Amino acid sequence: MSLLRKKKGVKPENSSITVRRMDFVFDEQVPRYWADNSPFLTHTLNALSATFPVGERFFVDTVRHYRDRISNPQLKKEVSAFIGQEAMHAKEHESYNDHAAAHGFDMAGIEAEIAGRIEFMKKNLSPERQLAITCALEHFTAIMAEAMLTTPDMYEGFHPSIAKLWLWHAVEENEHKAVAFDVYQEQVGDYWIRVRAMALTTFMFTFNQARFQTRLMYEDGQLLKPMEWIKGANRLWGRKGWFRKLIPAYLEYYKRDFHPWDSDTRELLEKWKAELKLDEQAIKKAA
Ligand SMILES: [Fe+2]
Ligand SMILES: [Fe+2]
Q1: What is the pLDDT of residue 1?
Q2: Which among 244, 245, 237, 220 is positioned nearest to 42, based on CA atoms?
Q3: For the segment 137-155, what is each residue's pLDDT rounded down to a tens digit?
Q4: Dihedral sign computed on CA atoms, order 204, 205, 206, 210
Q5: How does DSSP classify residue 6?
Q6: Which stretches of the chain drop beneath a pLDDT of 70?
Q7: How far is the CA of 251 from the centre of ligand 1 (A)?
Q8: Which of 5, 67, 100, 128 is buried most deeply by CB count within 10 Å?
């Protein structure tokens, strides 16, 4: 752990955001049920991945809208790095989604539905509210990412090439976890817009995630296999469930003085960057 004590409410000075090119290849070696040989868990992650390319481009657009008005030069650099990282995530998850589609899953249908919802938000919501939705979803990705990086049970059963995709994405989500939030605080700053957006986003996100997972299970002939659902639901929401353990970190977001770096993940990130040899893939250390 760094000897520097992190100041509350800001990104620590010795953390960095690096844009990396990965170019993952998912071949026929990757089994149909690559997550612990479980259709349920594989489709939980398929449903998430299907939403990433269009979702992450929406995050970029909502933050880019404010780029020229940002007064803090460091934050401006971080915005460029954030845009670079999210663009790479969209590209790599597109490649993964093509792989899942090759197994016969309608990833494009989910993507089209999310794209329609995003179009609706862009037409009907103010830039402030769109940015607040991005901040809410960035909190989701940051806490899921931190849980993945600290819970071997979440990734040890994954096929290695897919594990690397999710772990790389988890590292970068943590590196840039405060960028949209800091832009929001500088440019908008309204607490109630922020937390109302989180409440609405929580409902939409969990509802859609459940619906997309059900759809994928149906397409895969798994809908009427109760044991598959019971085992999977226990893995996500049981006593040591992946999602259940996120609840305290999720609730932190509702504090007035919340900041994404209140959870100091610098040491964790250093460990994973070394483990995955990520610095060899750096194309730009931008902020
Ligand atoms: Fe991302
Ligand atoms: Fe992100």
Answers
A1: 40
A2: 220
A3: 999 999 999 999 999 988 9
A4: positive
A5: P
A6: 1-8, 284-287
A7: 21
A8: 100
pLDDT of residue 87: 96
- Alpha-carbon distance of 153 to 159, in angstroms, equals 13
How far apart are the CA of 141 and the centre of ligand 2, in A?
6
For residue 268, give the amino acid letter: L
Q: What is the pLDDT of residues 165-189, one digit of tens each?
A: 999 999 999 999 999 999 999 999 9
Distances (CA, A) of 259 to 14, 135, 139: 17, 11, 10
Enumerate residues 6+ apart whose C-beta is below 8 A from 194: 132, 135, 136, 184, 188
Q: How far is the CA of 145 from the centre of ligand 1 (A)?
A: 10
Residue 269: exposed, middle, or buried by beta-carbon count in 10 A (0-12, 13-18, 19+)? buried
